[in-house]
Amino acid sequence: MTLELLNIDCLGQSLRLEASMAGWQILYWGGQPVAGKNADGNAEGDFNLHFELKDQNSGQVIPCELAFKLHWQPFSFEYQLTVAEQTLANGERDVKDIERQTPEVAPKVTRKPSTIGLLSLGFKLLKSAKVIKVVLAGASLAAYSWLFSLPFALSLIACLVVHEYGHIRAMQHFGMKTKGIYLIPFMGGLALGDAKINTRWQDVVISLMGPFFGLGMSLLALLAYWITGNIFFAGIAAFNSLLNLFNLLPILPLDGGHVLKSVSFSMNSIAGLLLCGAGAGLGVLISYSFGLALLGFLLLIGTAEIFFEWKQRHQSHLLPLDRYGQIFSAVWYVITVAGFCAVILYLAGTGDDLLALPLKILNS
Description:
4-stranded antiparallel beta sheet; 21% strand; single chain; elongated; Lipocalin
């Protein structure tokens, strides 16, 4: 997989440069490859691609050169296009430019079949019919009311909506078009957007903003419980924390899986990967220390899955995180997980059997 680094006009045709961290470089003119190099491990530094173009009017063959300086982490790209020894274009691009671009050729992402993926595809086909949102919301309310009670069903839907709204807000922050929130009975919710992400940072922010909004809801519900003493608010805080905590498990396609994959796949050295593994191991140890056996077990499984896929990181079309982005993402993830665990542990200590249920699930 390659990332589109440049797309400018040259002699009336699109001149597009694609590259990857493995060292691939392909230059297209009018959709046809005109220059490039294979994946040789030389992925950054100063490069010169020489090629010839045929003028459509005169038929003359014109010598051209694209000189550029590329650095992946942190990302920077400077270029100069010379046509017939005359500078035709020059400039530079940064992460913001990559985030907001719409590639001329949409990247093909191979995904493992999953129920969530199939449901997402199905609802994308139906997204033009806004009535489907109302129908699904009604079906979800009826299903959860049948299983539990109407007040609990309304609370659960509110938790799902707040979580998915966090994803929506993150997409809008990056200028992506969104199609809203779809509630799926017994499955949760989906926040759908039209645009494809271009960077690992976008993947992290969009993935974490859902649980982060959920953490805000849990803390507000906990505050309401302290003020009113009403156990209903404590129940919302406890079960909303459990719902979001499971979503942060490092297993794809859950939000936690996207975060761990983005951080680990942005590490180019074995030392970085080992550091990531040490952090995950510490998380497992802490989980078992607090009696959160299920959380620790799933954390171990998810981390192993990411490690097995790590060798394929250079084949991704996503711009990797720089060192600051890796650290910030990891800290943000840990703080969010710790926040939910703290809420669950605190409410389990109140002595109420219902409020202790989330902790019992994690202890299983």
